[in-house]
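ok trying again, last paste got cut off:
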Amino acid sequence: MIHDERPLAISAPEPRTLDLIFTDEARKQLHARYQIVEADPENIAGLGDGVLGKARYIIGQPPLSAETLARMPALRCVLNVESNLINNMPYEILFQRGIHVVMTGQVFAEPVAEIGLGFALSLARGIVDADVAFREGRELWGGEGNASARLIGGSEIGIIGFGDLGKALRRVFSGFQAKVRVFDPWLPRSILEENGVEGASLEEVVTRSDFVFVVAAVTSENKGFLGAEAFASMRPGAAFILLSRADVVDFDALISAVASGHIVAASDVYPQEPLPLDHPVRNLKGFIRSAHRAGALDSAFKKMGDMVLEDMDLMDRGLPPMRCKRAERETVSRMRAKGVKIN
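nice, full thing came through this time. structure:
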């Protein structure tokens, strides 16, 4: 038997696949540099000690127990390619042992921000409704078709959450000369100011914005924190755009606020995915729907593979990962994201 000195990586990227996140060339490099062991994410513990004892990397976010980790003395990094930190492994043990946990979710920031701009433009100018009316022969011409239209330029924009996606939103709106307020309790105001936005309270963002973008991660502290009271306090006709996770919103209250005509809204995420065919949001006027596709571009997925390869190369040389975003000890235990089941 030929001894293989290449580092060993366990591949368990579900719901992604290696074909999805690596270009053909990058996947060739992966297999050339590393021993790749494909594994069922739900049964990492079933791998033999010959695999677990040698594994340097895990590509994916499979459930891991303390007992399984104890059998993995060579593990250096868990490379999460789902984009959310799922509460399915003992992070404290990983940190105690100096094992990195990194994420590739920043690849979605630009494409999601761009579709957020598209939602805002459509809601502001009635683009979707005007197109449907035109198809049905009931279009309104000229000013008659702009009774509720408004400009984004010079408006007031609120962003809830200012991670990679919030920063990307700020960039795509930079040419609109809008006033941008941000609520993010995990960031000091100086960082917000350095990014050209005004730090504000949640109440200020909700009540003083023409467009409210929600890009906050789900944590133990904010599940369902945007409900009927928040929607009622929004400016009449304001747009509420949900781009992160549905669990931060009381979705029934959002539907009610839109159905009443008080606000308009758009969402790329839902409490249940795929959404039942009889769900009331499907036919709700004033609501733009997108099927969790904002970031799901092949170009974004392929960037994941490039980032994984670059960071594995750094760690092979005794350096820390730099391309992927590292999980933080102080906040990882607060994350409450669900695994994504749709690519």
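cool. The domain at 109-289 is CATH 3.40.50.720 (Rossmann fold). The chain has a mean pLDDT of 94.
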